[in-house]
Amino acid sequence: METKIVLKSGKEQSVKRLHPWIFSGAIKKIYGEPSEGDIVRVFDNKDNFLAVGHYQPGSIAVRILSFSDVNPDIDFFRQAVSRAYEYRKAAGLTGNSSLNVFRLIHAEGDGLPGFIADYYNGVVVMQMHSVGMYRIRKELAGIIREILGPQVTAVYDKSGSTIPFMSGIKPDNEFLFGDSEPVIVTEYGFRFKIDWIGGQKTGFFIDQRENRRLLGEYAKDRRVLNMFGYTGGFSVYAMKDARLVDSVDSSAQAVELADENVKLNFGDDPRHTSIKADAFGFLNDIRDKYDLIILDPPAFAKHNNVLSNALQGYKRLNMKAIEMIRPGGIIFTFSCSQVVNRENFRKSVFAAAANTGRSVRILHQMSQPPDHPVNIYHPESEYLKGLVLYVE
Questions:
Q1: How far apart are alpha carbons 214 and 387 in whole angstroms?
Q2: CB 340 within 8 A of CB 300
Q3: Strand, helix or coil at 165?
């Protein structure tokens, strides 16, 4: 028996506005006994069809695949992946000799909630964030191979830490097609080693590509501090024209990878130093040492119940950087926390600046690049926020 979900009266409004999540509190009754990952159909309280999607127990009960009464078979997913790839071709992200790394599938942004795939110079690294998508991971890998053809030499599934723990599934990270050692990718002419097995996320923060490029325009002759440096992406862009660049991370593995990426592009250049240190401890002792600081911390909040603590964390971090930077300095500051919206982040940075008493101007407001599309009906998909500040 196919599962039918009926919403409470009035709770259909967000679905009619094409928001792709249905929360458990909106559900009046479930007809049938769906397992996590099953396809379910959703109706309003008057038995009008609303949507079809993947079921999962928890706060987000249904991740919507379509607002039309369709059968989400393999052809349905083939068309969705094809649309996502055509969109990236239109955005100029394919067939570009200076750029062979981009996000191929961006979950809700591409109408495929729970599914992320990144392209690294021939290797596609997938992450499934829902059981529904995990069940068809091999079929999705086959579709990607079919659509991209010889551009794909291997497909790696890295869902080991992203499937909801309540599901009971213990996925293994594994190649679904081919095999590959870590690869070297090119991003606007700069080279990076991608380690999808040992690295965070799928191996690289592709979403900062355009912001790294902007940073490169400001780094000339400056003393640059890249906090939470991870693989050294911002450091590499800064190194082109900076006076010196220090990359700081609490992970020894990240420090080594940052060194490796700088060396890939600039050899043994004495202008670069990698430092393993705690962020707040390091920032306490840098007064007037740097005139460009990058603050790109990991997500301080993944759930609304810790939002207040996260905002305080952003405030403390930015206050310390604003307090310590040299006069005339520039700060690139970011939040990648989905539950921290653009307004909340800006208020935290405002409070940080106000507490220092220094004059601060906003030079740029930043977001994520076009291969991380924001679904206009799903504001939560705009997770990356950034500001470029000028500090007198």
A1: 12
A2: yes
A3: helix
| Cα–Cα distance measured from residue 61 to residue 8, given in angstroms and rounded to the nearest whole number | 14
Tell me: domain 74-185, CATH 1.10.1040.10, correct? no
Residues 158, 129: contact at Cβ < 8 Å? no
Q: Render pLDDT for 59-81 as a digit per residue (tens, 0 to 9).
A: 999 999 999 999 999 999 999 99
- Single out the residue of 20, 23, 45 nearest to residue 4, CA to CA: 45
Q: Can you tell me the distance from the alpha carbon of 44 to that of 13, in angstroms, rounded to the nearest whole number?
A: 9
Work out the pLDDT band at 89, boundaries 50, 70, 90: very high
- pTM value is 0.94
CATH number for the segment(s) 3-66: 2.30.130.10
What are 201's two structure tokens? 């996320």
The pair of three-digit structure tokens given for residue 1, joined into one six-digit string: 């028996």
Of the candidates 100, 143, 120, the one whose C-alpha atom is nearest the C-alpha of residue 201 is 120
Whether 322 and 391 have beta carbons less than 8 Å apart is answered as: yes
What φ, ψ does residue 143 adopt, rounded to 5°?
A: -65, -45
* pLDDT bucket at 305, cuts 50 / 70 / 90: low
pLDDT per residue over 18-42, tens digit each?
A: 999 999 999 999 999 999 999 999 9
According to DSSP H, which parts of 267-327 are helical?
Answer: 279-283, 307-324
The number of beta carbons lying within 10 Å of the beta carbon of residue 313 is 19
Distance separating alpha carbons of residues 187 and 166, to the nearest angstrom: 38
Q: Which of the pair, 176 or 339, is modelled with greater confidence? A: 176
The tokens describing 230, both together, are: 């991870």
- Which residues are CB-neighbours of 293 under 8 A, at least 6 positions away? 224, 225, 227, 321, 324, 325, 329, 330, 331, 332
Measured CA to CA, the distance from residue 106 to residue 116 in angstroms comes to: 5
How many helices and strands (H and E) does the chain possess? 10, 20
> Which ranges of 219-367 would DSSP assign to H, the alpha helix?
233-239, 252-266, 279-283, 307-324, 342-356
Domain ranges for the chain, please list them.
3-66, 74-185, 205-391
Rounded CA separation 229/315 (Å): 19
CATH architecture of 205-391: 3-Layer(aba) Sandwich (3.40)
Contact status, residue 108 vs residue 87, Cβ threshold 8 Å: no
Query: Of 24, 56, 20, which is closest to residue 37 (Cα–Cα)?
Result: 56
